[in-house]
Amino acid sequence: xxxxxxxxxxxxxxxxxxxxxxxxxxxxxxxxxxxxxxxxxxxxxxxxxxxxxxxxxxxxxxxxxxxxxxxxxxxxxxxxxxxxxxxxxxxxxxxxxxxxxxxxxxxxxxxxxxxxxxxxxxxxxxxxxxxxxxxxxxxxxxxxxxxxxxxxxxxxxxxxxxxxxxxxxxxxxxxxxxxxxxxxxxxxxxxxxxxxxxxxxxxxxxxxxxxxxxxxxxxxxxxxxxxxxxxxxxxxxxxxxxxxxxxxxxxxxxxxxxxxxxxxxxxxxxxxxxxxxxxxxxxxxxxxxxxxxxxxxxxxxxxxxxxxxxxxxxxxxxxxxxxxxxxxxxxxxxxxxxxxxxxxxxxxxxxxxxxxxxxxxxxxxxxxxxxx
Length: 372
Prior knowledge:
alpha+beta; 19% helix; 3 domains; 14 strands
């Protein structure tokens, strides 16, 4: 298989995990690392007369191996892409093209630096279908353009839901790969999960995932496919029990799906989402309530914890530089503090906040009414 035209796009566009099974069937060899537990596949590609190894590593999410007591993101790349509110995925799939000096290895070695080394190409796709390009670095006879086209072909084969592409200018290019192909033998749905385990503090709801069933499926078969898809996608949903599909309420399980639904978005409800908050969201547990409107943590931006409301805020929104000490209180809490002390509203904030951040009178009047 030639690297410069591998892989060929599938004629039948199925959802990501189904396409992944077809992709791994092209591998020359595989290996299970039981201690981790991790599985790796090796694809033997050709570049001219040279053999080039390409690896796929399946990394399951194991809460017992995570140290997330500080609330930091589970996936730093999801945080960078503003997907911090997505549920943590059950598995992550790393696609690695090693540098030329490692082309003679029989199989990739797994250690603590495996996912942080510099490779010619390193991409990761979560079981939910969302993924990231972590690094593209030209080397040998492979140009950066060759590597980018290689990744695009992989995505055209696998059809992930969305990929964040971080370039040299720190610009994120989001490339959606839609699985719809007008196949009359299948019916497609995008699942919108509404759990009974509602969390008012959650920064945003997880994005939808795709599921497909034969066009002659009944409601009972659709429910089973939906429940399995949700369990496969998200770690907190391993024991998820589907209770209802919004547009199928009142329909018996023997009703044909085509009689009550059409391809598109469907809202599903269920219970038994894990109560383990620490490992629920890709962005971690840091609650953001900044004046800029952000509600979930972006690891690129420096934040401070308000001593009063115990929520995080962007230092940048308070005009704080890296050299300045972080504030102790956010703007709303500092205004309440000044009001209670009867200070002049035209006086600058206390020493822990910067001098030029004055209290806006209209906001102060509105707040005064709420405090009375």
